[in-house]
Description:
Number of helices: 7
Oligomer: single chain
Order of helices and strands: EHEHEHHEEEHEHHEEEEEEEEEE
Largest sheet: 6 strands, antiparallel, barrel
Structural class: alpha/beta
Strand content: 25-35%
Helix content: 10-25%
Amino acid sequence: MEKEKIVVGLSGGVDSSVAAYLLKEQGYEVIGVTMVNFREKNLPEGERSSASKIVEDAGKVAHFLGIPHHVVDFCPQFQESVVDYFIKEYLFGRTPNPCVVCNRYIKWKAMMEQGEKLGASLMATGHYARVEQLSNGRFALKCSVTAAKDQTYALYGLTQEQLSRTRMPLGSYTKDEIREIAAAIGLPVAKKPDSMEICFIPDKDYARFIEENTDISLPKGNYVSKTGEVLGQHQGIIHYTVGQRKGLNLAMGHPVFVTEIRPDTNEVVIGDNEDVFAPALRCSHLNPMSVPDFEDGMEVFAKIRYNHKGAPGVLERIGPDELLVRFREPQRAVTPGQAVVFYQNDYVAGGGIIDGSVKE
């Protein structure tokens, strides 16, 4: 009987490597594919790019597992769909999550297209999440068995077609168990540390990256209070996000926070801690997942950023592609540009992109 072909996104890390191993053990014909998405500019002499390190480590893993390995350059698509989007959002005073966009439009779309060229109808990744088909016929993400490592938040944008062809073998394991498997089989990257930063900004200096990758002059502007009083001068709106306290260089005599960013007037609004909380938010660019559509009165558990513990809320339809989410208790730092993801009973109901907080 011919084995079913599946492409696995090999990043050279422990998770994707063990995912490939587990799928091979399950009887799939596994094909490793490494995507080169971004190459750093102006590297110090003698320093290798992260892209070359990823390709090298992924190649070692593929050789160790005895699977074919393909390296595909997706830099142009990544630049247009992810990097340009990331920069534009910051210039508009928003704080984007580029991983959400990358997963849907680069990783899954590009990987599936590459898989089809190689004769594979399925794809897999090393994400800590599970895919299930529900009784209503829809495919949905189910939270990983380990809440500390669950990665469903950044995957809420996947389509039904993408989910139906996706396998996520790590969703039933803890990170420690994956490390143990890697060590037990002698995987060459078994002790490689996890990557925690945005892949194209390894030093986490977003403002520097934007300044180096745009021809736009980014002027300083005013810090203002919610009543319009000028409090000082900021360094440019790309340096700030809602809820930020550090790095403001404002001597107010008490802790103050960014409560709003106004790109039209180049102002950063400053307030007290209580000003950072909001009872509701507006979101758009909706993607239903476990449900066919979002209905008025639908109760959800909503996460407003990756490391947010989540909070109970109720959905209200306010437009064809727009929802109001009312929380039972006000939430801190509702940030435009971030994803809001809705959960019901450990399944992702869907989500959208936050447009702003609603102070009512």
